[in-house]
Every structure is written in structure tokens, then in C-alpha cells.
Amino acid sequence: MNTDITASVKPEYPVVDRNPPFTKTVANFNTLDYLRLLTITGVSVTVGYLSGIRPNIRGPSMVTGGLIGVMGGFMYAYQNSAGRLMGFFPNEGEVQRYKKA
């Protein structure tokens, strides 16, 4: 069984790193990735606060929503960063940055 996702879908953009490691992917986060992470976290904290039915539950509900938002936002940013490095998303900046190295 072939579990390599890149075998079934060919990248549309230049490939910078076919299998980028965790550290390289996180180091490749751009401003938009961080903005998305913060936005998803902020919305999740707000929804968590508002979903607390009673006032004494709002604090723990807000923290839980925030944790879910941080994880979701990080995974979304990570997916976009890895996709750019693997050539599945537009990656002009990555191609120029890693071509010099």
C-alpha cells in the first residue's frame, strides 16, 4: 500500500523540499500564517467565553476554546507552510529564499 500522498498528486509549483522536517516548516511560517493562527485563536476564545452557560463556567470554557483555537490555528498554518515548501501552494518567496542557500 502506497501511503505517499505526493505520489498521487503532482505539485503545481516548484518543489523546495519534498518532505520538509517540522523545524523547517515552522521556521517557514510567514506573516499571514501567524495572522491566521491568531485570528482562529481569538475567535475560539470568544466562542468559548460565550458558550459558557453560567458565569462560573465561562472562564474554563474560554480557556478550553483558546486551547482548541491555538491547536487548530497552528495546524492550519503548518499545513499552509508545508504545502508551500512541497510545491502545492504558491511559493514564490520560498523559491527565492531557498534558491540563494
UniProtKB/TrEMBL annotation:
Keywords: Membrane, Transmembrane, Transmembrane helix. Residues 11-89 form the NADH-ubiquinone oxidoreductase 21kDa subunit N-terminal domain. The chain crosses the membrane at residues 34-53, 59-78. It comes from the Eukaryota. InterPro entries: NADH-Q_oxidrdct_subunit, NADH-UbQ_OxRdtase_su21_N. It holds the Pfam family NADH-u_ox-rdase. This is NADH-ubiquinone oxidoreductase 21kDa subunit N-terminal domain-containing protein.
